[in-house]
Automatic annotation (TrEMBL):
Keywords: Signal. Residues 1-28 form the signal peptide. It comes from Streptomyces anulatus. It comes from the Bacteria. The keyword Zinc does not apply. This is M23 family metallopeptidase. InterPro entries: Dup_hybrid_motif. SUPFAM superfamilies: Duplicated hybrid motif. The keyword Phosphoprotein does not apply.
Length: 368
């Protein structure tokens, strides 16, 4: 685990760089300017939060007081310890590497109550190609003056969900089931022709009995490595409206106006939707199946790339250690179609009732 070093930035410096600006859309770079004079070399003790972008409403910042610095530091350290992009690197080195690639580490503090804080944190995707960022919901609890953070998928998160006043009853029921992994255990990737209908009735991301065109078969959420967990859709007769694959709790990962939404569903799965515009803002909000999330677009609020309007849809679940991750689609049934990997990323197809649909094919969203 990365060390959680203290951020030494003064309150005056924070105000000067705009950390106390109105959110959710306002952002500011969180820099250790007071502790490190201009031109001085960085030291090993410099906080990893020095290069982190912070989103925080002024009311939240005021309630946190001086504790906001330690909170940002704690969340940042946990994010970098979990990020694939930071593997094998110290926190400071990871932030520097990402900055050189034009990628930000973002910590969004949305709500606080007494010694609890809640928000979203993410690492932007590279903008060199089509892909999706890494992101987590988090809940933090201050105990004996120290912030204990839980990122979505780890045991601390599950513990905090069960106790935090920032989680409502309906949301707790869904999120606790998710965090405790009350789902069919992940199985070995099946062979072609062996379907695994263990997604608890998830639909494709638009209204049932309407169609969109499959523009990208199964591929990694990053567009390069990892399980082939994602699909791309565009066009069709659904008016481009992107909808939740099932009921659950929804969170706008980039904040108001951003094109990335995550929905946590009952039974252990969650789904991501990226590149949307005209999005509905959600903050741990309970929603119904097929709730409107936004419209297909080219938004890259957290990195990646999009050459044409579409929705990048991804499936997530947990590994045996409760770490949230994007998971394989091969052999799973979504929207009434069984999905299969192709010979390369984006080339995979779907089958239903003897029909095979490959990229370029219009696909109806079916409930059975």
């Amino acid at each position: 685990m990365l060390s959680k070093l203290s951020v030494r930035t003064t309150i005056a410096a924070l105000a000067a760089i705009g950390l106390l600006a109105t959110a959710p859309s306002a952002t500011a770079a969180f820099r250790d300017s007071a502790a490190t004079p201009a031109g001085a070399p960085a030291t090993a003790e410099q906080s990893p939060s020095a290069g982190v972008t912070v989103k925080m409403p002024s009311a939240v910042a005021n309630r946190l007081g001086a504790g906001r610095e330690a909170l940002i530091d704690a969340v940042s350290a946990d994010v970098l310890s979990r990020s694939d992009a930071a593997k094998g690197l110290t926190a400071k080195a990871a932030v520097g590497k990402l900055a050189d690639e034009g990628r930000k580490v973002v910590v969004d503090v949305r709500t606080v109550s007494a010694d609890w804080a809640r928000g979203v944190a993410y690492v932007e995707a590279t903008r060199a190609h089509h892909g999706e960022p890494e992101g987590w919901l988090y809940i933090a609890h201050r105990k004996n003056g120290q912030w204990i953070t839980g990122l979505e998928g780890d045991r601390a998160f599950a513990d905090h969900v069960a106790r935090s006043p920032l989680v409502g009853k309906a949301e707790r029921r869904t999120m606790t089931a998710y965090a405790q992994r009350k789902a069919t255990p992940q199985q070995a990737t099946p062979s072609v022709g062996t379907t695994v209908a263990n997604t608890n009735g998830l639909l494709l991301p638009w209204m049932p009995d309407y169609y969109m065109t499959l523009t990208g078969g199964a591929h990694s959420h990053t567009g390069s490595t990892g399980y082939w967990s994602s699909l791309d859709f565009a066009g069709g007769n659904a008016s481009g409206r992107v909808r939740s694959s099932r009921e659950g709790t929804a969170t706008s990962m980039c904040g108001a106006g951003g094109g990335w939404t995550r929905v946590i569903h009952p039974g252990g799965f969650s789904t991501d939707y990226y590149h949307m515009f005209n999005t509905t803002y959600y903050n741990g909000t309970s929603i119904a199946r097929s709730a409107l999330l936004g419209t297909i677009g080219t938004d890259t609020c957290a990195g990646g790339a999009a050459t044409g309007a579409h929705v990048h849809w991804s499936l997530r679940t947990y590994d045996a250690n409760l770490n949230g991750q994007y998971t394989w689609l091969n052999g799973r049934t979504i929207g009434g179609w069984a999905w299969w990997n192709g010979s390369g990323q984006y080339t995979g197809c779907a089958t239903r009732s003897g029909v095979t649909a490959c990229p370029g094919t219009a696909i109806y969203n079916r409930t059975s």
